[in-house]
Amino acid sequence: MENHSLDSISLNNKKYEQRKGDFKQNEGVELLMKFKYFVPLITFIVPTIIITTLLFWFTEPPPPIQLIGLVILLIAACGTYVMGINAVVKDQEESGRM
Question: How far apart are CA 73 and CA 82, in angstroms?
């Protein structure tokens, strides 16, 4: 009887080790996927900041309220994008696709 329980414990340990190994192998893929998710956001934010900075540099600086509005717009765009990515990832995990 004891031998049977020891066999099941070693079997469970093997399954755990296998899952742990799979996670380590998939960790790089998940990191790459997460970076890939944010490439469109980066390609929106970086040019916006560069173009805005150049416009402010070569023309008259705008009033402070306009700068505050620009910062709020960029923060809101980033927040909305991140919330959308999280919703898609959560839906995919629930459906078992990831």
Answer: 14
Tokens 């020891």 sit at which residue?
6
Is 44 within 8 Å of 77 (Cβ atoms)?
yes
Q: Report the half-sphere exposure of 43 (CA within 13 A, side-chain side).
A: 6
Write out the chain in H/E/C secondary structure.
CHHHHHHHHHHHHHHHHHHHHHHHHHHHHHHHHHHHHHHHHHHHHHHHHHHHHHHHHHCCCCCHHHHHHHHHHHHHHHHHHHHHHHHHHHHHHHHCCC
Tokens representing 5 are: 């329980």
Is 0.85 surpassed by the pTM of this model? no
- Are 62 and 56 within 8 A, CB to CB? yes
Residues 41/83, Cβ–Cβ less than 8 Å:
no
pLDDT tens-digit readout, 52-70: 989 888 988 888 999 899 9
